[in-house]
User: What shape does this take?
Amino acid sequence: MSPYNLTVNPFPSSPTPTLSSANILGGKRHIAALTSIKNCLNDLNLKLNSTEPLNEDLFKIITVIQDVGSGKTHLTLHMKTLSEINDKSIISYVDLTQVQPREIDNFFHSIVSGFGKEYYVSIKEKLIDYLKDSYIQNPKLVKKIVKYGFFDSLNGNSISDKIELITERKIRISYEHLFELMSNDFTKIEIHLITEIIKTGTLNYSDLKTFENLTMVLTNLAKINYKLFKKITIFQIDEFDTNLNSLDYMKGLINSHVPYALFMIVTTPSLYADISRINPSLFDRLEKANYKIDLAGSNSFDEINSIVLQYVLHYNSELSSSEKKDLSSKIKIIYDEFPDFRNIRSILNVLYHAFEMSFKKNSSNIDEQSIEETIKNVYPGLRLRGSIMGISISDFIKMRKISIDKDIVESNVKDAIRNLISYFDELGTVKKYEEKIDTDYLDAVYNDQMGKKVGISIAVDSDKNKNFDKIVKSTKKNSVVDKLVILTTNITNIKKNGTTLVTIDKWKLADLLYFSKKYDSDEIKSEDPQKAILLAKSIQIC
Assistant: This one.
């Protein structure tokens, strides 16, 4: 048995998106973003089909902006997996974090390699088609190019067979005659680039020297792609940052209006804001992008849930509604309990490991225990955000198990409050009240630094939460305390007539139980007194 009847783990395990895992796209916002990109590509194609398009109409810009881990790179790579985009475009993907130093030659070679090896193979294939088509009009010239002679004919090799040998590098062609043939359809620089690809299988410029040369090569490459393939060239620049060279290159490329091209610039809101300060001129151009895609809300629960379900549905399209609900409930646990994981990259990583654990246990779903074990094992040193005591994730899971058990939670909170008061009594901050209190509603009493008697009432369970008035009347009637603090799990924070109602949320509850555990185990450390003081103040004690 395997979770959700899946034969493979559907979740990617790579810390960063890869092309192999980018074929799946989910989430309302991500799908809407993809639609916008398709619209931009279609718009550019329409311009190209007009009789006399202006040069500026042949160039488009798209910006994709959102936080780290929101799925920007995944969306960018996903485009390469779609036939409807590949049928209209040729894509070069560049991850600028891999381009160091950012000299012009490195920048150029990252774009060149970003097309992939298959692109350069396809250039050769297109040249073969071009030679075959040209043979009808220029048979003598084509024969000279591939050096087709008497012995070829004698051996039964057709001109088509001889041309095909170009891909296998079994013949040396005459570039002089190739230039003569292509000069009717291509410019000198375009022919030079094509012949360089035929010779080397790529573009090897070791010394571009100037930005003008970079622009010239990319411009002509885009023109070649349109002439040979009738496709737009998409330059995807991922992880775009504030490196001064990168900013200058991008500004220059935008100013050049590279024809038959679409520039897709992917960055984060913080870096985008930095660009506005460092290079206002470039920022102005990016602000005027044809399509500005903001993946706002990409880290919402609904978006993350939709993406996760899509991964599972890709491998099991017959996932039942009950299985969907079960998986969504597990995603909700991770999302609600651990703010550090509120992005799709982190959630997928947790689910990948949790799936592996559930699979080994022959579980029919991803169970809660597997999620907890994953977080403890994979993120052992991670601290709980919002925790005053600095609780680790693994300790929070232990505290959470205690805090959700309604039968023991109130008893545990009472013990924790008493331990907190005892600790401050040891520090000399307060004086623990040892005499018996004649009321059923007070759970702890102490004298503060001013000598006032303070009573604590724990109202955690649902029945007691409804009896605030009884608690107040009982303590006031007998005048047993000068100040009353009621700790409740209800959402409230009220001070009235000497009574303070304080909400204990799940973070404070975990902190209290964690402190109490350390106190009982005599594990209080040197940095804990200050944390304990902050914890006490957060619940209006001491």
Summary: The chain has four domains: 27-88+231-294, 122-193, 300-379, 407-538. The mean pLDDT is 88. The first strand starts at residue 59 and ends at 65.
